[in-house]
Amino acid sequence: MISLIRNELMKMFQRKSSLIYLIIIVLAVIAGGIIYNKVVGEPNENWQAEVKAEISQMQQDSKEASGEEKQFINNQIEQKQKYLDENINPNAVSNWHFMNDVVYGMTMLVSLLAVIVCSASVSSEFADGTIKQLLIRPHQRWAILLSKYLSLIIYSLMLVATLIAAGYLVGLVIYGNGDFSAKIFDMAIDGQKETAVGPQFFLKIAFYLPSLLIITAIAFMLSTLFKSQALAVGIGIFVLFISSSLGGLIVVLADKYEWAKYLIFPHLDLTVYALQDKILGDITLPISLTILAVYYAFFMAMTFVFFQRRDISI
Amino acid sequence: MAANALEVRSLTKVIGRKKIVDDVSFSVHKGEIFGLLGPNGAGKTTIIRMIVSLIKRTDGAVMVNGNNLDGQFKETMSEIGAIVENPEFYKYMSGYKNLKHYANMAIKDVSDERIKEVARLVKLEDAIHQKVKTYSLGMRQRLGVAQALLHNPSLLILDEPTNGLDPQGIREFRDYLHSLAREGISVLVSSHLLSEMQLMCDRFAIIEKGKLIHISSMNETMDEAEAAEVVFEVSNSKKAVELLKGQAAAANVKVITDDQFSVSVEKSAVSTINKLLIVNDIDVYGISRVTATLEDRFLEITNKEVKEA
């Protein structure tokens, strides 16, 4: 099995695209660092005075406003006051803030690149006709497919590792080594949550990994279903974007229909659990993980059963 | 008794309601080149793909050196080297890396020395480190042979191996197959090119509409043909033809030129005709048998099948 995986990795890295994707991530992080630095600017030493001034300005506005607007402004004042009470600089910048604000957001890019590579994996062997030379070897089909899948997992993790390493280095160059456990407020659906910046970043990455696993499993399944590489990659990317944009619709659906909670889409983004304990009313992290595990088992079973039975007649 | 290199027993493939391959059985002896012959779409490729397990068998068994493919998949597959239609390679890798890739998948250890040796054997040693996308079709075909031979298989299975090769390439390929067979490697080869099979194979089977309709050795086929065309060179062909028209043994008597005519007769009747001509004062300068090509034979066999059906 190890020699099969080594073969798959060799094929992967003999392709220029696999290396280019890693470079794209590094370039994106560098660009993100430069833009973030321009927009956020240098850390402000006098932030307390500034926040106080903002609050008094808002209190003025609040007197003049009425109804919902007044409510909204009061909420804002409350939040600003929290920063003062907890002594947290809302505009603080450090390499860890950069990681949490910008680098984490780039996991979307990792998902996209992982989907492209995974959905091309088996379909490209079909498109090039190399699949028939591959399957006349003294190895069972499932073993060959498994070696492909495992090498894709290794590559996906390399993408994530590249993102984190590049983020850390770029942050280090621009801001120097900041306070790993600086306190921040992170935005959640039901208000703000006080947390430490470094651990929050790694918590979000940890919650991101299961969804990466599922997304790549779907892409891998597509790549065994289609003989055309372009079709497999196209549908893979389509599924990726559909799943990230369906979230809002599912929330509405789940209010009306209980079954909507068990669709895969609301569980694909587990990072909400880094900020809150429940989604869709009563769904907790273990429930979400169980639902994902069921879907994962289903996708994998489909992939392997289909591939095992398939007649190779290209 | 030593087992056959390949034994195929009542191989059947049904897709939907259609029988693509219908109860095909044959065997390939050790050191023999065996041809599967048939028009396009007859099921040759499906048979070959079932033997190398690219396509699932609906029914039937495949034995290689006495090992059953079902029970001993790994042992059986490591005895087989195959090219299935045009050999496809990872074009973005060098020829050497491609071979290395397949060497890694072999059960028996394939050394780097062996890879170089095989590359030399197919005359690719100068280009082996170039990317496959720079290779010509002939070079790819040779690399295909190299990957099939890499792990020292005892049975070589080639599906339409000369597709896309130029005449020079075809000839080299044929010579190469003969030298492999002399070394004791058995070869199963399929083609729709009859003339080529005639030069390549020791024995062959004809497949039509998924059925095996004929199986014999190349020499048998040529001799067995009931009536062959014979050309006589004589002093007066018109007179000779008049004479022969009354004879039952001679059919299709035709004047070719003033001193040549042709006639379809069985082998034994040739001398009878000769005697008849001489007795009737016609000088005979030459008798030559027009060798029936495999193509004629093939059409003869398949046409007979059609009539019987």
Question: What is the compact description of this entry?
Answer:
Chain A contains 13 helices and 2 strands, in the order H-H-H-H-H-H-H-H-E-E-H-H-H-H-H. Chain A has helices at 2-14, 16-40, 47-64, 67-86, 95-103, 107-128, 130-134, 141-175, 197-225, 229-245, 247-256, 265-268, 285-309, and strands at 183-188, 191-196.
Task: Output the radius of gyration of chain B.
Answer: 24 Å
Percent of residues in β-strands of chain B: 25-35%
Percent helix of chain A, as a range, is over 70%
Spatial ordering of strands, largest sheet of chain B: 6-7-8-3-9-10
CATH architecture of the largest domain in chain B: 3-Layer(aba) Sandwich
Work out the count of structural domains of chain A: 1
Query: Biggest interface, and residues per chain?
Result: A-B, 25 and 35 residues
Number of helices of chain B: 11
CATH topology of the largest domain in chain B: Rossmann fold
Strand tally of chain B is 14
